[in-house]
Amino acid sequence: MNAIEVKELYKSYDGVHAVNGITFEIGYGELFGFLGPNGAGKTTTINILCTLLKPTAGQAFIAGLDVSRESDKIREHIGLVFQETTLDNELTTFENLLFHAYLYGMGRHDAVKRIDDLLSMIGLQSKKNELVKHLSGGMKRRLELIRGLLHKPRVLFLDEPTIGLDPQTRANVWGFIKEMKRAEGTTIFVTTHYIEEASDFDRIAIIDHGRIVAVGNPNKLINEMGRATVTFGATDGATVQTLIGHGMIESGSGEYQIKTEDPDLFLKQILNLSGLKINEFKIKKPVLEELYLSLTGSEIRDEYVDRPRKIRGHNR
Amino acid sequence: MKKLILPIYVITLRDLKKFFRQKSRLIGMIARPLTWLFLIGTGLNQVIKGGLGVSYIQFILPGILGMTILFSAMFSSISIVWDREFGFMKEILVTPVSRFSVAFGKIVSGMLVSTIQGIIIMAAAPFIGIRFTIFEALLLVVFIMVVSICIAAIGVFIASMIKSFESFNIIMNFIVMPMFFLSGAMYPISVLPRFMRYLMYLNPLSYGIDSFKHVMFVEFAHFHSDFSLLFDVVLMVAFTLVSTVLAAFAFDRQQKE
């Protein structure tokens, strides 16, 4: 049995399929990325998997438990970090964490020890007794992350965990997530649209219009996508052109491009050609971002506005 | 069992912590009834003379006590709407605790917060010449708790019905204020025209305030109370049971949508 198994899952609102028949599975201990534009169905899928929404059709299992019938048991085994903040601003960091631990039935002694360990791992020990409303956005995110892991879930769901964070905090967050995956074998399901973050995930699925359009190891997916582009500058362009022949494109100011299956071999061949005055070359392999854009198109998506805007900034 | 009791304890603990931390809210919650008691009570005391057997300021103390409970218990439970708005409810709902115990937790914390405030207002009684024995004071506290549970449960029920806190003013104007004025707080039920009296009979707060009158005006009870004490207690318990069950189911149902 896998950590997560999803079979022909559908979720419809008034006839519109937010999730349109998706099937995938995630093994235990895997770091799995769910990539897609806004409104592609990522959050809907997460909400179904963590039992906050009921699927219209299809099945989903978390640790072998059916999301439609065993939601109470599933909740014991999952941790969640939502896209929006779900902390109590009027309580301290420690109180937020302790509240969470108690709701999962942890004893005070175990909870306090675990809280201290996690706080120092993520670098928030000094904010332990600070009211959450006085923390910065990045600190709140990190706090939510350790809260999601407090009760040692088997599967951790992260919905856009690094949205709006500065590069330093992003690196800190990813370092921590990978460390926890290694140390505790937590299965991690991440949605993101920061594509470069997903390049070292174990596997990714690209979702668009409620359907999965690609799934697999990110590097494999990229290699399957096709040929690399070699760009080089040469002072003696005309000679190069005659020697290499077809397929070479001059892109102006002495720069040339050629598409090839194996850029390394191509460059060796070029260097072996005597008499050429190639003064530089670089290899540009297609990156995940290009794969993503080629699969989902490059037009900008607005999120489906299906519920009223939340009002923020009020004091309780 | 642990699964049912624990969340009630945790949710109550959270609300009490926040209650004592927000001094301004506590002061505001006590200032309102005291203002009513001393400003309206003193003013009308001069206008309304005789016929009541007690002075007007004394007459409205049970009503002001009812008002304190109405506001604090109602708003304590309606904080569910705030929690939903600010996302914290989601954090509670993905934990393994049952929806029922979340609803009960909210009712219990509303009851406690409101009882504390009720006791503070009760302590104003000696200053306006109302005295009671320790036994009567304890009895009053029990009644305060029963009324508080009932109102807190109604609060959870309403919170499960409304979607956003824009609806808040509507609740204030169409539920809380009518509940206050149609409860015998400001005038005896018996002086009202019949159709208004029927509305009062549907209001659980009427029986709560009436039970306070029984305890506070022992020797005038036959004159000021509208129902017998036994009738008050039976009706309050009935309202409390019904509203608690309705609240728990409404809350549970709403989360399933």
| Secondary-structure element order of chain B, N to C | HHHHHHHHHHHH
Percentage beta strand of chain B:
under 5%
Tell me which protein chains meet in the greatest interface and how many residues each side has. Answer: A-B, 32 and 30 residues
The first-to-last residue Cα distance of chain A is 45 Å
TL;DR?
With 316 residues, chain A is α/β, with parallel strands linked by helices. Chain A has helices spanning 42-49, 71-77, 93-103, 108-122, 137-149, 167-184, 218-225, 237-244, 263-272, 288-296, and strands at residues 4-13, 16-26, 31-35, 57-62, 65-66, 78-81, 155-159, 187-192, 203-208, 211-216, 228-234, 248-252, 255-260, 278-284. Chain A has ten helices and 14 strands.
Keywords:
heterodimer, A: 316 residues, alpha/beta, Rossmann fold, Alpha-Beta Plaits, 2 domains, 6-stranded mixed sheet, 4-stranded antiparallel sheet, 10 helices, 14 strands, 34% helix, elongated, disordered C terminus, B: 257 residues, mainly alpha, 77% helix, 0% strand
Walk me through the structure.
The complex is a heterodimer of chains A (316) and B (257). Chain A is 34% helix and 27% strand. Chain A has 316 residues and is α/β, with parallel strands linked by helices. Chain A folds into two domains: 4-216, P-loop containing nucleotide triphosphate hydrolases (Rossmann fold, 3-Layer(aba) Sandwich); 223-287, Alpha-Beta Plaits. In chain A, helix 3 crosses helix 4 (108-122) and helix 4 crosses helix 5 (137-149). Chain B has one domain. Chain B is 77% helix and 0% strand. Chain B is built from twelve helices and no strands. Chain B is globular and about 60 Å long. Chain B starts with a helix and ends with a helix. Chain A binds chain B through residues 50-52, 54, 72-73, 75-76, 78, 80, 82, 84-91, 95, 99-100, 102-105, 147, 308, 310-312, 316, and chain B through 2-3, 6-7, 9-10, 13-14, 17-18, 21-22, 79, 82, 85-88, 90-98, 164-165, 256.
